[in-house]
Amino acid sequence: MNTFSELGISDAYVKALKELNIVKPSEIQKAVIPKLLGTKTDLIGLAQTGTGKTAAFGLPILHTIDANRPVVQGLIIAPTRELVQQIKKQLFKFTKYIDEKIFVEGVYGGEMIGRQMKALKRPTHIVVATPGRLLDLIEREAVDISKVKTLVLDEADEMLSMGFKEELHKILQYNKTKRNTWLFSATMPDEIKQIVETSMSPDAIKIQVNKNSLVNENISHHFIKTKIPDKTDLIARILKKRKNERGVIFCRTKAGTQNLVKQLKDKGYTVGALEGDMLQKERDKVMRAFKNEKLQILVSTDVSARGIDVNNLAFVLHHQLPDQMHYYTHRSGRTARGGKTGQSIALIIPGEMQKVIDTQKALGIVFKEIVM
Ligand code: AMP
Description:
The protein has 372 residues and is an alpha/beta fold. The protein has helices spanning 4-7, 11-19, 27-38, 53-64, 81-94, 113-119, 131-139, 156-161, 165-174, 190-199, 231-241, 254-266, 280-291, 302-305, 325-332, 353-363, and strands at 43-46, 74-77, 104-107, 126-129, 150-153, 180-185, 205-208, 219-225, 247-250, 271-274, 297-300, 315-318, 342-348, 367-369. The model has no long low-confidence stretch (mean pLDDT 92).
């Protein structure tokens, strides 16, 4: 099955997908879409970000909506504001040519709740939300999730590692109606297994893509040996060589992020910072500039960059390898999106080679050295 029509997607959606250059279904789309369209089922999808997950659950959820019923029928929960906005935007674009109107609303923390409460008073079919804000809105009775037929947990492992466990359990409790739950996660830690056991059907379909590797196979992995005082100059040289390419540099701390941005700006590069201490308004501004290609480089902490989907990023640079292995997967997943290739490059100081070796083993990947 090599087209969306063959997977069961109706013509109006196929037309919109074509405009978005989404023509050939990705691996996860091929695996998931026919199952979700054909049967009412729970589903566990083990997939990396950047594999086309959003369309894999987004198109089927749109097909379940009865546009004549002005109640919330689909609920999508995702870890960050940026991801919520991206999902909402994609669903909106998918519906461009359909006859009826499906209303999608995005709600997240960091924005005045009053505005969101007002927006939810309009007919809404699908709500896309971060866990904390959603719970707040449920408890204020600003959103009614009792009629939800389909609940999607996107990047479930990320939501748990961000500390949303309690919120998720409460939300799952609030919606006790007979619903289908579709859970997507890059990894399967015990806490996810617990959600699966307590909140999902034992018959849930399990789908795994990229089975051999935990990391998107279109990414190549590299390291460059250096020393701490040489890192900024080295990064400047890398950026100079790649002046026609865009990428994300990951730092471990907020202060480190701001510091590197300042140093790179002083050297004349167009860079922007993204970290949790910045005001939401500033973060949005930086993301806009980066998406519009006014910035070559985004320097970010792990938390801020979660779920970011920017097209055509050629590389990800690790100022330092992350402490936790799963962050390596998430960081490198910012590149090689939508079937393209990308590079993930780690700066390694003496004594860190073991970390490279551990990462190779844990994730089933191979690093190659770049000598600068
Ligand atoms: P996602 O994994 O859903 O965040 O999608 C990653 C990116 O790939 C998004 O920019 C999508 O628009 C794009 N995309 C999704 N499915 C396809 C496809 N079948 N062909 C080409 N691009 C796609």
